[in-house]
Amino acid sequence: MTRRFINQDNTSNKFWNITTENTTQTITFGKVGTKGRELIKEFDSATACEAETQKLIEQKTKSGYVELNKDDDIPDKAELSEDEAAELFFWESIKKSNKYRNANWQEYDVDEHIENLTELLSKSGKQRLILFEKCLQEKLHELYTAEIAELSIILENDFQNENGVITFDESISGDGFIYFRCWLLLKGKEFAEGLKTDINTFLSTDIDFYIGDCWGEGLLYVADEAYGINHENEDDIIRDTVSELFPDVIHYDDPEEMNRDIEQGAGIQKRYPKLVEEIVSIRSKA
User: Fold this and answer.
1) The whole model's pTM is what?
2) Are residues 59 and 198 in the same domain?
3) Looking at beta carbons, which pairs linking 196-203 to residues 24 or more positions away fall under 8 Å?
């Protein structure tokens, strides 16, 4: 019996086939259009062979592989648009440059992450850096909402707790809110996209977090600094070029009005009771 799978997500275009015959398991895999590689493994019994095969199939489907029907041809992979390619490059660069992405957030060093990201991007050409900067400005704008501002207040502002009623200092600086949104983006696509839908997802992450420095200001300059590594005396080239090529992109320094007014007084606790309770508990112990 042979089962065939493909992964054509994002830049991937790979196949993975698995065949079992009694106690023999044969796997072929590689890039679509090539012969690929072959692995053959013998098991003590047909039952053990089948069990291992099912385990591998589950792992593959969870990682993005889709099964083909017996007589289906492998479809042609759709080309990514420029915007899709830019967004993929943006998130992959942030992920690859974060050495602590699978670790407890208490180990996370935002400055080190930005240094690694700058070095990684310095290997890219000017056009890719332009698309990275454009995507950054778009993502910062997408996070310019009352909900994200309220998350910033919960994580960063002073508060008073009187008989269980929690009132936060409502002040929020324009620059500080930009740096906070940079920090959120540095946590990766799944995290940042989840917060756009519901800031309560901050609590659903499967890794621990530390409420400390929630600013990632250096992300604002990373594309120009990466370009400057190989091009001396050329300041703000990437950011200026984005402004010239994409005048309709809303710059993070000049956003539109928020979607609604930010909650005042105890309104934040009323809107997010569980989030406020857990974050205040953590901050009180810090």
Assistant:
1) 0.75
2) no
3) 196/142, 196/143, 196/145, 196/148, 199/147, 199/148, 199/150, 199/151, 199/272, 199/275, 200/272, 200/274, 200/275, 202/151, 202/275, 202/279, 203/274, 203/275, 203/278
